[in-house]
Amino acid sequence: MHGSIIGTLDECGDVTIRDPDRHPSPSATIAIRGWVCSKGGEPVEGVRIVTGDGPAIDAWYGQNRPDVAAAIGESARGTGFFAVIPAARHAGRDVTITVIAVSGSEEAVLAERRLFAEPQPDHAGSLYIDDLALADGSVRAVSGVVLTLPVDGVRVRGWALDPSKAALVTLDAIAAGHRWPATIGYRRDDVARAFASSEARFGGFRVALPALRPGIADLRFEGRAVDGTILRFSTVYQMLVST
Fold this sequence. Notes:
- By secondary structure, the protein is mainly β.
- It folds into two domains: about 5-115, Immunoglobulin-like (Sandwich); about 125-240, Immunoglobulin-like (Sandwich).
- Helix content is about 5%, strand content about 50%.
- It is built from two helices and 20 strands.
- The strands form four sheets. Strands 12, 14, 15, 18, 19 and 20 form a six-stranded mixed β-sheet that branches.
- The termini are far apart.
- The relative contact order is 0.16.
């Protein structure tokens, strides 16, 4: 970026921005996340998201980014941002998303991405993994749908909502023929703000994945809404387990 503001757009949709410019977005929502701060590592005032023909929204700014703190300094730990845009209003067409960092009188375009919002049935729900808590106590932020995991197990942390933007009753992680129940109900004010729904406030979950065999496997999630509807989330994560 130009000026005194630096940062990165890590994710826009369900894939990382390292892929080609045109990204499929199969979720019911388009997730936008990254980090931004001053060159000295100090937080900015906020982050604004602008779509080509829609109103600007304020991203939830201040998320924990231990990876940024390790690279820049401890003052940059709380410089992550996150926002979601409903894909339905853009379904079937290209949409340009502009991420703007605001610091005092300065506004800087962090990134601009053009993607295609693929139509998705209303029953899909929304689910994202934020980070991985490793056995040694460290935390690894997640960007995109590829998870690099150690063989000695990991605790996955994220959030999941039903189509009405409410927290789930149950949630299971499924991989390699195994099913692990998640602990749900963790408070997520950032998710509630992003979805403008008080019922999303306790949509956080944590699930422990035990020791895993080295290799590649898909990680899927299945949940149950308050009304009993079974939700099979469209987002599939790929686990790369290495020694």
